[in-house]
Design a protein that fits this description.
about 70 residues, elongated
Length: about 70
Amino acid sequence: DTIREVLQYMQYDAQELSQQLHHAIENAFRKNLITDREATMIKRKHKASLENYTYIVVWLCKDKVARTVI
């Protein structure tokens, strides 16, 4: 499952959480706590993370086998 899906299962609204984060980032930027570049990076990573899966895939180069760690 993606992080967005798990948030939905737990009755959180991913869009609302994203809006709250966006406001917090903008406030931090206005107060000069973070740079424009940092703000952009945080927003981009957050957006991408919502589509990531909730498990880690570990690639073992020697075997060329993917293993899933939950």
